[in-house]
Amino acid sequence: MRIFSGIQPTGIIHIGNYLGALNQWVELQEKNECIFCIVDLHALTAPFDPKTLQDLILEKAIVYLASGIDPEKSIIFVQSQVKEHTELTWLLNTVTPVGDLTRMTQYKEKSKKFKANLNAGLLNYPILMAADILLYQTDVVPVGEDQEQHVELTRTIARKFNQKFGQVFKVPEVKLSKSGARIMSLQEPAKKMSKTDKPESYLGLFDEPEEIKGKIMRAVTDTGRVIKYNPKAKPGISNLLTLYSAFSGKSIKELEKKFKKKGYAEFKKSLAELLVSSLEPFRRKRKELLAREVYVQEILKQGAKRAQVIAQSTLENAKKKMGLT
Ligand code: TYM
User: Fold this and answer.
1) Nearest atom of ligand 1 to the alpha carbon of 181
2) Confidence of residue 117 (pLDDT cuts 50, 70, 90)
3) In terms of DSSP bridges, do strands 33-38 and 2-7 run parallel, antiparallel, or are they unpaired?
């Protein structure tokens, strides 16, 4: 099967991104043909600093590699280096109803946030994402829950195009992680963990041990004392149990039993220790890769070349069907 997914280069990578997306990717690359993109064009829709963009892109390539994405098995590339993405976006714009875009949850949230200078890119963002996915005849898109609606729209766009102009695109399936599809904020556990919130609310994949301990010990928990999974009544503790389970491989039931007679503080201390040791290999690999910039840049260059061959063929086919060639 062909797998495609991507992450924006701006902001840091937190454990929500890891458990929702990256962790699935690492597993999927063993038996599938995987393409993982750093979606720099998507990042232009929110305020950003052109001076730091290249550094952030390189850092995300390092995140992919440090998380276990193997360039021998998977294609890793930067979106803007394969110009077919923007060209197909325009073609798909013409089959996408504006109403489908305005009802996207992410658009509704972001249009409130950026009310003062709402750019058209923010509205058209899911069409660029559809182009990313459809260019590669993707079977499966592994993402976190917040991106599910965009993949649904991608399916609609693919069907619409195929109906109107003839079969060009494969209709992709979404794949959510079993346990980490929606990791919540450490400070406001009713909200998803987000890189645009304050640092205490998320755990960076490369956070140092002291930061990890501090953030976990200060994580907002619920009233009461029992360590029980119940996302509605106890969203804080439930989120921490999800993290514990994801990084230890133990089931929530097992953990409830293990911490039955223990208090929140003891549970948090144990979770912090688990996270410090689980994230250590990421910090170590990152440090190694930071010293090998030329190697990382070469992976991105080769990745773009390989991606472009596939993208070009789909784009040509779409243009032919539309009467453009
Ligand atoms: P982005 O960069 O916001 O997030 C990257 C991935 O992390 C997942 N994620 C989460 N998963 C669990 N819990 C959370 N709190 C959490 N926060 C983020 C996201 O669902 C995503 O999988 N539009 C996309 C990037 C994109 C893309 C694509 C993805 C562009 N083109 C094509 C797949 C296929 C985005 O902004 O993700």
Assistant:
1) 12
2) confident
3) parallel
CB-based contacts of 318, cutoff 8 Å, min separation 6? 88, 91, 161, 165, 168, 169
Cβ neighbours of residue 106 closer than 8 Å, sequence gap 6 or more: 125, 126, 146, 149, 150
Distance from chain centroid for Cα 300: 18
Token pair in block for residue 148: 């599910």
Q: Distance of CA 299 to CAs 54, 127, 244, Å?
A: 15, 27, 33
73, 160, 170, 195: the active-site residue: 195
Question: What is the percent of the chain where pLDDT is above 70?
Answer: 100
The answer to whether residues 64 and 9 touch, using CB atoms and an 8 Å cutoff, is: no
Average pLDDT over residues 83-111: 97
Map residue 310 onto helix, strand or coil. Answer: helix
Q: pLDDT band for position 310 (50/70/90)?
A: very high
Residues with CB under 6 Å of ligand 1 are: 4-8, 16-17, 19-21, 39, 42, 129, 132-133, 141, 143-144, 146-147, 180-183, 192-193
| Rounded Cα gap, residues 109 and 255, in angstroms | 35
Task: Quote the CA–CA distance of 42 and 50 in Å, as a whole number.
Answer: 14
Q: Which atom of ligand 1 is nearest to the CA of 39?
A: 30
Among 9, 68, 56, 77, CA closest to 282: 68
Residues 6+ apart with CB under 8 A from 266: 259
Residue with the smallest CA separation from ligand 1 atom 31 is: 129
- Taking alpha carbons only, the member of 142, 123, 116 closest to residue 37 is 142
DSSP annotation of 128: H
Q: Is 192 part of the annotated catalytic residue set?
A: yes
CB 46 within 8 A of CB 94: no
Model confidence over 258-277: pLDDT tens digits? 999 999 999 999 999 999 99
* H-run or E-run covering 86: helix 84-93
